[in-house]
Amino acid sequence: MLAKTSYAALTGFLLLGASPVWAQNIDSQEEATAFAERLKAVAAEQGIPIAFDGATISGADVTLTGFRFDQPAADPAAAQQKIDVTFKEVSGSTEEGWRAESVPFADIDETTDGTRGQVKGMAITGLELAGTQPSDPVPEVKKLSPLFFESAAIQSVNIEEGGKPVFSLSDAKIDNTINDDGSFSSAFNFGTFNADFASAPADEEGIKTLREIGYEKLAGSISGQADWNPQTGVLSLDPFDINVADAGNLSFTYAISGYTPAFIESMKQTQAQMAANPQDNSAAGMAMMGLISQLYLDSAVLSFEDASLTNKLLDYFAKQNDADRATFVAQLGQMVPAMLASLNNPEFQTKVETAVSTFLQDPKSLRIAIEPANPVPATQIIGAAMGAPQTLPNVLQLDVTANQAGGN
What's the superkingdom here (predicted)? Predict the structure, then answer.
């Protein structure tokens, strides 16, 4: 059976994220071996060294026997755990690139020290390995990440302690798309989760606190959408949502520009130079600052829609401080001016005080937004933060509001 570290690593491998005209499906052992060796080489390039005992072919399917992650593990026994992985309907060549239509993984069910872990329905669809000499144009995304997949999914994860369920996750999936204009989109949904703390040890401080706040169980979802346009260099996350029932919704969006393929390649080269000569990074440091000057912050918004979490936290901490709710809220409000006084920016201080007071008195929503009329250079942000931090809210056109209609 796989040790915990093994199926955790396998789950991580499934959730990695970044076409030529494919040839007919393979039909020889020689091709199966070539595919396996290319997979090993590409995985190593991505910092995921793998190993296997052999590659066998059945029809157009390639099975890697004794597949494992070839890296040190905290548990030496886990490093020796091996599985067989089958790549369905393999086609292509090392020169042009390889494709496997699907990669289903065997379900996992193991118990260690009273903890049972089950993982079901793991699969990758549309796995592609970049070729060494492709004849067709290659999208920028695949140039930067030679290991690409169209989708990856995990049907369910279940963890039990002493026979009682403590955590479950269902229907996690990532869908990657290279659009007609060469831009890249990734929609990820980490599924619906449920955590039950009823059977957790009462002496665990974090669990104890959650119970006292009023959360014996937690249920929710995490999802998001990321997009990158190599031509414009715009990279965005819109949105990244964490939604917890009877707690609230936390949403984060951002957009930066200047993140072009040329920038990424230059960054890699500079990092390699710094790693090769750690004793003298002055030149590389200057080069890094030059690269940062190419980046711009277009926008960033963090918002929270309350669904009882804030009220529960205020009640809990008021009790911990031997105060009634109104007194505790007033004390919190008095702390804000002192925390912001060092900025020496009265206008921004008043804006934050008003938003915080409004939210604490009637918790509905809180929004922190950077939405400048024009993208702000990264060097300008760094300069303001280091030289004149009181100007940073103005540089970023930072806004803080509470309980506004629409929240996000």
Answer: Bacteria
Per the DSSP assignment, residues forming a β-bridge with 170 are 156, 192
Count each helix (H run) and each strand (E run) in the chain, helices first.
12, 18
Q: What is the pLDDT of residue 143?
A: 85
DSSP assigned state of 181: T
Q: Which residues are within 8 A (CB) of 120 and not within 5 positions of it... i.e. 6 or more apart?
A: 107, 108, 154, 155, 156, 157
Backbone torsion region of residue 80, taken as left when φ is above 0, otherwise alpha when ψ lies between -120 and 50, otherwise beta: alpha
Task: Read off φ and ψ for residue 138, nearest 5 degrees.
Answer: -110, 130
The domain spans of the chain are: 4-231
Rounded Cα gap, residues 258 and 291, in angstroms? 10
For residues 148 and 123, the answer to whether their CB atoms sit within 8 Å is no
- Location of structure tokens 């998001």: 224
Residue 160 CA to residue 52 CA, distance in Å, equals 31
Amino acid at 173: K
In the block, residue with structure tokens 């060097």 = 379
**Could you tell me the pLDDT band of residue 18, with boundaries at 50, 70 and 90?**
very low
CA distances from 121 to 127, 167, 260 (A): 17, 17, 36
| Predicted pLDDT of residue 208 | 83
What's the pLDDT at 23? 58
Residue 364 main-chain phi, psi, to 5 deg: -125, -60
Contacts of 287 (CB under 8 A, 6+ apart): 266, 270, 273
* pLDDT for position 200: 67
In whole angstroms, what separates CA 147 from the centre of its chain? Answer: 17
The string of DSSP codes covering 130-171 is E-SS-SS---HHHHH-SEEEEEEEEEEEEEEETTEEEEEEEE
Residue in the block written with tokens 């990264």: 378
Residue 198 φ then ψ, to 5°: -60, -35
Q: What is the CA radius of gyration of the chain?
A: 26
At position 228, the amino acid (one-letter code) is W
Check pLDDT > 80 for residue 333: yes
Cβ 190 vs Cβ 223: under 8 Å: yes
| Distance, CA of 383 to CA of 370 (rounded, Å) | 17
